[in-house]
Structure formats: C-alpha cells, structure tokens
C-alpha cells in the first residue's frame, strides 16, 4: 500500500471541502493507517479507536433495524465545535473526517464517498495470516 | 466480514423476553486483557442474542496486538459486548464486556458507570495483561472478583495465581471455563455474593 499517495489524497479532500480539519484512514480493528498532517499521532491513534468502535456499533444497529441488506453507509456524530463522519473505505478500512462547526454535512459525505471510489484498491488491510479472506 | 451479531448457539435463547415484572437492573462489567475470553464469557452466559462488536484483526495490528498464547484468535472487540440474564421475577443482570487493548481503554469509564461490580478474567499465559484492570478497579473502589479462565485445563493452582497477581486475600479468585454457561454463571454468582458481603459486613 502506498501511504504517501493515500495521505496526499486525504490532504486533497481537506483542500476541496470547506470546514474539514482532519482526515484519517484506519483499519477496522481500530488502528491508524494514514492521516493528514494537522492531526497529531496521539490524536490519530485515539480517533482510529473511536471510529472503529462507532462503525462496529453502527453495523449492529443496521443488523437490528436496517432492511436486511446489511452494511453501514455512514456514521456521524455532531458535537459542540464540529462533526465526525465515518464511511467504509474498502476491504477492512474506514475513512474518518473531523470538521469544524461550519462544514456542510452533505458536501462532506459526498466528497468522502467520491474519495473512497478514487482510492479503490489502495485501501485494503489484509486480515492477519490464517484469518478468513474478505 | 463485519461485527458478529448473531451466534447459532443463541437461536433458541433470543426468544427469552424481558419479563414485565422486572424492577431492578444490575450492571456488571467484564474486563481483562486482550484475548482472555471476555466476549466468549458474555456470549456463553447471555440469555439474549448478545451484542458483540468483534472485528477481524488486520495486519495493521501486527506488533501492537500481541497474539502470543492466543495464536488462534481471529477477531477482537472494538466497542463492547452486551448480554443479559434474568435473575428472578424482578431482577435482571446486564453484562458489559470491555475491549482489552490499550487503545480502547478510554471506553472503560462509561462501561464502569453505575456498575455493581466487575469480573476480571485472567489467562495465566498472559497474566500481566490483567494488571491494568485490577489496578483501575482497586483505584476506583469497584468491587470485583478474579476468574482464571483456563478452558478446563489448569496448569497452575489458584494459590499460585493469587500470589502472582499479589491479590488481596479478601478478593474472591476462582477458576472458570468462559465457554461454559454454567461455569460463567458461577463467576457472576461469586461476584454478586462478594458485593453482598461487602455491603452487609462493610468495607474491610
């Protein structure tokens, strides 16, 4: 996986999406893979763990209350001072974005999904040896 | 590929409805190190289909999530496990299993809020993994019992485990097999009795 390219793509997302502050790609077991430069390493670790937990719970919600197709399209949290968006970003990864209070949620979600398509196979985190394939 | 939210073993259990007569909800947290069997315990003892937030472990965790002693482990909890047991007509027990790795410890505060007590699971192959849990419970004064999850094959006596953990003699220590409903139940009963004795006899 080319982390440099991924990081560059993440920086591009922030540049074209007003109000966004940080973007991070994480493995679904809660570890950071790469993130934008403004996010410190400790905060990135923390955000990766948070996002994995949120996505997992959102998935449980979709199983319990969804229409049976499964999967989570987007998880979002709104807090004082900003928003957190998380989308699935290819096998075994998620993309998380933190914005300030002025961001336009529709545009953020749209740009994130667009980026996920762009990233395509850059974004795979293989299971550990012996684990079941995707 | 996502969270395991159903287990075939529970298909006959998920029909157990919560009785309308329930008046008292008690909360118990299940804590311990990475890979010690917390999710297994909550799943084996729950009367409802347990909520689990297990994710497949990825190569990003190599060198961070140490699999020594638990090489067969494929998934890990990233939020919490949730299960329920009805005690009697009026009391119901809610179980919250915490995630084990350090990066998820921030979740523990919320899981401990309002908890009657906690079960600390230990694995003698990775004894040091439970030190954080025990220290934290002692610090915050939450009653707890320690259960040695040996999957039915004990190599160490409970006395050895107690010494290795430097455990206060007043804290119950017992053996269990987290996969067995009956065994997991005994651990919970031990915790409830321990909490009761603390209340009736007063804190030591």
Question: Could you describe the 3D structure shown?
Answer:
The complex is a heterodimer of chains A (134) and B (204). Chain A has 134 residues and is an alpha+beta fold. Helix content of chain A is 40%, strand content 24%. Chain A contains three helices and five strands; from the N terminus they run αββαβββα. Chain A has helices spanning 3-16, 41-65, 105-119, and strands at 20-27, 31-35, 75-79, 82-88, 93-99. In chain A, α1 packs antiparallel against α3. The two termini of chain A are 17 Å apart. Helices cover 25% and strands 22% of the residues of chain B. Chain B is built from five helices and eight strands; from the N terminus they run βαββββαβαβαβα. The radius of gyration of chain B is 16 Å and the shape is globular. Chain A binds chain B through residues 27-33, 45-46, 48-50, 52-54, 56-57, 59-60, 63-64, 70-71, 91-92, 125-128, 130-132, 134, and chain B through 1-3, 5-6, 51, 53-62, 64-65, 67, 74, 76, 78-79, 99, 101, 103-104, 106-107.
- Helix count of chain B equals 5
Alpha-carbon distance between the two ends of chain B: 48 Å
Mean pLDDT over the full residue set of chain B: 86
Strand order of the largest sheet of chain B: 4-5-1-6-7-8
Strand tally of chain B: 8
Q: C-alpha Rg of chain B, in Å?
A: 16 Å
What about the largest sheet of chain A? 5 strands, antiparallel
- pLDDT averaged over residues of chain A: 89
The fraction of residues assigned to DSSP E strands of chain A is 15-25%
Query: Please, what is the oligomeric state?
Result: heterodimer
What Rg of chain A is obtained from the alpha carbons, in whole angstroms? 14 Å
Low-confidence regions of chain B: 1-14
- Low-confidence residue ranges of chain A: none
Helix content of chain B: 25-40%
Tally of DSSP helical segments of chain A:
3
Q: What's the total number of strands of chain A? A: 5
